[in-house]
């Protein structure tokens, strides 16, 4: 896949009602210039797949899209096999699967790890408590400490992704400090259908709540997505109490032994299924 193919990738996103923007596609090609592929029919792009190698600890497969007119012909499986060839030297491969994609991935030896939910909402200000005084906007100089914290929780370094998110959505970037140590942070980005809030990474649920409250208090009455793992029923209940509702489920799936699981219980929202 090349930059000139992004328009076709966006057309497939719109056909599936996905949320990605041109900037998202550009990031895939920046992080993995040789790791994105397209499927062609009569010189027309009818499918895509993207991959990211996270520090050679594990890799991510995303953007498995097939034109609706060509589905059911094994194109998605062929794109996945191409991705597996690209990533054959990486010990573990992971992805977040929609219900429709799970049978395809199971046939390719992926197994389920845990569930996630895409939550959506237009939050009203009166649903939120007052933001904590210990929450402040993120600064660029925070990224050194945040990247270290994020590597511990996510399981691999993704500073380039975090820098990209801060540059493109500084108004969604917040941190919590305790005794001059960052104990939580959140980031966000613009989307085609809704703004995407995540990652939300925190040492505890109260910190995660404070971060989400601070962000949404500044941007209430706008549509938001937040993709959250199913690790904490109380957290899911709180999201529901402020107005979020589940749009659809995902399943985190993996292939190969993953020695770098990180601390998933401290990841209250992921970046999105396309990035992990």
CATH architecture of the largest domain: 3-Layer(aba) Sandwich
* CATH topology name of the largest domain: Aminopeptidase
Q: State the share of residues found in helices, binned by percent.
A: 25-40%
Give the terminus-to-terminus CA distance. 21 Å
For this structure, what is the CATH class of the largest domain? Answer: Alpha Beta
The CATH homologous superfamily of the largest domain is termed Gcn5-related N-acetyltransferase (GNAT)
Please, what is the average pLDDT? 96
Poorly predicted spans: none
Q: Which term fits the overall shape? A: globular
- How much of the sequence is in beta strands? 25-35%
Largest sheet: 12 strands, mixed
Order of helices and strands: HHEEEHEHEEHHEEEHEHEE
Number of helical stretches of at least 4 residues:
8
User: What would you call the structural class?
Assistant: alpha+beta
Query: What count of structural domains?
Result: 2
Count of individual beta strands: 12
Oligomer classification: single chain
The radius of gyration is 18 Å
What's the quick description here?
A hairpin with a 3-residue loop joins β2 and β3. This protein is 30% helix and 32% strand.
Characterise this structure:
This protein has helices at 6-15, 22-31, 75-86, 102-107, 143-154, 159-168, 205-218, 233-241, and strands at 36-41, 44-54, 58-66, 93-97, 111-122, 135-137, 174-178, 181-189, 195-202, 223-229, 245-255, 267-269. With 276 residues, it is α+β, with helices and mostly antiparallel strands. It folds into two domains: 3-90, 3-Layer(aba) Sandwich (Aminopeptidase), CATH 3.40.630.30; 118-269, Gcn5-related N-acetyltransferase (GNAT) (Aminopeptidase, 3-Layer(aba) Sandwich). Strands 1, 2, 3, 4, 5, 6, 7, 8, 9, 10, 11 and 12 form a twelve-stranded mixed beta sheet that branches. The two termini are 21 Å apart. The mean pLDDT is 96.
């Amino acid at each position: 896949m090349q930059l000139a193919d992004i328009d076709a990738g966006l057309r497939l996103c719109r056909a599936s009602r996905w949320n990605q923007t041109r900037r998202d596609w550009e990031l895939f090609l920046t992080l993995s210039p040789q790791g994105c592929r397209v499927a062609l029919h009569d010189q027309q792009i009818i499918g895509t797949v993207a991959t990211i190698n996270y520090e050679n600890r594990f890799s991510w497969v995303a953007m498995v899209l097939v034109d609706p007119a060509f589905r059911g012909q094994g194109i998605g499986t062929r794109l996945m096999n191409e991705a597996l060839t690209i990533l054959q030297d990486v010990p573990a491969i992971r992805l977040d699967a929609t219900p429709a994609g799970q049978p395809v991935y199971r046939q390719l030896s992926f197994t389920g790890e845990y569930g996630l939910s895409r939550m959506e909402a237009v939050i009203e200000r009166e649903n939120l408590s007052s933001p904590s005084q210990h929450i402040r906007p993120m600064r660029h100089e925070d990224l050194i400490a945040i990247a270290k914290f994020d590597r511990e929780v996510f399981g691999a370094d993704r500073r380039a992704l975090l820098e990209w998110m801060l540059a493109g959505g500084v108004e969604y970037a917040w941190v919590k400090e305790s005794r001059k140590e960052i104990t939580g942070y959140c980031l966000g980005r613009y989307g085609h259908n809704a703004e995407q809030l995540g990652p939300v990474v925190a040492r505890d649920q109260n910190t995660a709540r404070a971060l989400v409250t601070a962000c949404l208090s500044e941007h209430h009455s706008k549509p938001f997505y937040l993709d959250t793992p199913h690790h904490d029923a109380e957290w899911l209940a709180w999201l529901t109490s402020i107005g979020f509702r589940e749009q659809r489920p995902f399943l985190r799936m993996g292939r190969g032994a993953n020695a770098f699981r990180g601390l998933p219980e401290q990841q209250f929202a992921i970046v999105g299924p396309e990035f992990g």
